[in-house]
User: What shape does this take?
Amino acid sequence: MDFAQDDDHYAVLGVETDADDATIRKAYKKLAVKLHPDKYVDKSDAEREAAQAAFAKVSLAYNVLKDAEQRNEYDFMRQMGAGNPDLAFEGAPRVLSAEELAERRELADKKFRIGQAYQMDKKFRPAMDAFKEAIRIDPDVAQYHTMLAVTYQRLGWLSYAMTEVQAALKLEPKDQLALKIRSLIRAQEKAQEEEEEARAAKDKKGKKKKKGKGEPEPVSAAAKRKAAAKAKVTKQLSFKKKRTSLLQTLLGAIFGRK
Assistant: This one.
């Protein structure tokens, strides 16, 4: 295993190797808020994928370091990978035997099968818990991450689903189900964006229409003067018409005209 700086769980979280649980949890929460995929919904595909990959890396680092047993195993492998074999014989954590590893894998697979059963019954919350437990026990199985992604997608938690898809594809780049779920999530995210844009446009149109009915457009001073002059002329014409009609009536009466 190559422990490059970018893959070192301690470096990813930005903590020292002797950091306590509280420090690790605090570092994770800070990075999770900064890198959460929901903050990149309006960005380009490349930026969203980069954010999702970074978030997946942070989540993996935290999931390993928060568990005492997994952290001990990781520390041992990290020391060996860094070229310090002597450390393995000076208080290093005990290496699990083949039988113990097999038991852990069997337990993880059992949790996974329980999750599948729940998912078939559309009980997504219990399925999610079972898949997460399988990943905690054995985080290096792509199928576990893929099925957790499916569960998140069914629950509508698209950003979490995409994070698990990225974790699965990192372990198994040709995982067909993970690739299919990734395409589906992207389509759903796009549909949600379009729906939100349409709703915003409709709300804006509704507000404009309401304003037009309840609040008449302001009239300029020039328009007011023009309207007043027109009303004055109309009034004068009406008066003249009435006076002419009255005169004609009087003349008709004098000269016997009807």
